[in-house]
Amino acid sequence: METDHQQDGSTGTTGETTRRSYVRLLAAIGLGGAITGAAASGPQGVGVAAAQTDGSARGITVSDSGSTIADDVSQLNFADSLSATESAPNTVSVRGETNPNIVDVRDDLGVEPEGDDLWAAIEEHYTSFEPTERNHRYEIPAGTWHVETDNIHFDAHEFLGIVGDPFAVLKVTDRNVDRLMTVGSVDASLPHAQRTVMRDLQVDVRGDYDAGIARWYTYRYGRMENVSMRGTRDKFNPDYGGDRHTVLVNGVRPSTTNIISGCHLNNGDTAYDRSTHIGHAIPFSSDIYNHGTNLWEGCQVSGYIDNGIYVSGDDGRNIITGCHVRNCAGAGIRIGPNDHVQDCQITMTEHPGFPWSGLWVENGGGQLVSQLLVNSQIRKDTEIVRLTQEGPARLTDVHITDEGTDGRAIRINDNDDAPTILEGCTITDRSSPTVSDYAVYVRSSNVTFNDCEFDIGSQSSTDRHGVFVTTGGDGLDRFTLDSCMIDADGASLRFAESGADHSVESSFFEGLVMSDPETTLSSVLWVGNRHYGETNFAGERTGWQGDFNFGFDV
To answer: 373 CB contacts (<8 Å, ≥6 apart)?
Structure first.
């Protein structure tokens, strides 16, 4: 990954005027902002009013990025963007942000579709300006435009927009193009990529080409909207394989906000015969350089081998809402500290050829998952939902439909000291297992299931069980079931390790409830439950509060 470290600089130019002159200026222009003998602020959005000292009647001189406007300009118009901040005693800085300069790539840059290298033309225009003067929106008319230049580095600008007008196709036509662009750098010093927009574009990699779209390191704001890829990635191709990341978005400051909206990567990557999925192309991601907030909304991804939405490795925040991931290996959605998944769907109808999980919650804590639908119709290599985070996490209204074969629906193996709470979650298991197994594995302490319903019915001759509380040797404490229903073929609930301070209340067990020999369950609260199957606690029970319903013997 490139790291471009840049020197401290300034994103704009300011001038100074005395406080008295500034008051006179405001009185002259009022809210509309007009005055004789002055000039309009320029495209950099920094208008500077400086007091005159020669006593002439020339009024106020306005400069923009160091260029003084001619005296014959008759109007000064700050519109609604006028603002003032005190920068030193008796001085006031006048600043404003203006709309970007519009550059039509055909009319202004002379690029012809399906002929010239559009990317080279944009790079030449962009680099011809100083960072504080880069305030442009490149509009690409409808049609197909060639990309033959590898990885333009849009390192620093006030505003950069690359947009289809109304929609355009960027066709990669050179095998040396590994990635279309890099925006900004990991260094948070100025000048930097202040505001960046990319929208209404499709990147075409069909034929013997492969490329990632973008790596963004944004400073203030980034928006990628309605960007898609036509053609299948081929990351491991020895002749023309492109960048590992397809869309990588990082905010380099905690105050940075990025929005990735309505972007579709539905043609996947080409699978190669390897022992692991790692190293194939990643569709949507952020990494260790993200310290800001990324909002991923309404995005789709299908058929990728190295995860789907992979954002677990940073200390920023990722909010994933309304997204749909289909048939991805690794993990469909993989989140880290303080991330939030809301109203998303994960669908598995074709096995990707490598181990997969649907949702993976890892690293740190503070994760929230709500209104997630998971539908699997294939063999599970491990589990559909994997929880291995190091801090607290809460999952609400997660609904799993499993019509595949072997493997688990949920595995929890997180930090024993931090609570993991699943609330209002369901499993509808109509799988066809070839080996006897449990749908839910609890392998750590401090886990709560509240108001959950697990309806588990094998479609083969092999039993499918419910919840298994086990670590393979160590004790587990503070396991809680409250107002849950577990209907399974054989065992609804099984304790395989000793533990203390469990709480099982107001729950329904259609199958066997049991503990293994040599287990000791102490200080357990067990009240208000309904047992419709047998109970068989082969280990010891000490200091329980409450007991089984009347009529059950242990």
So the answer is: 344, 345, 346, 399, 401
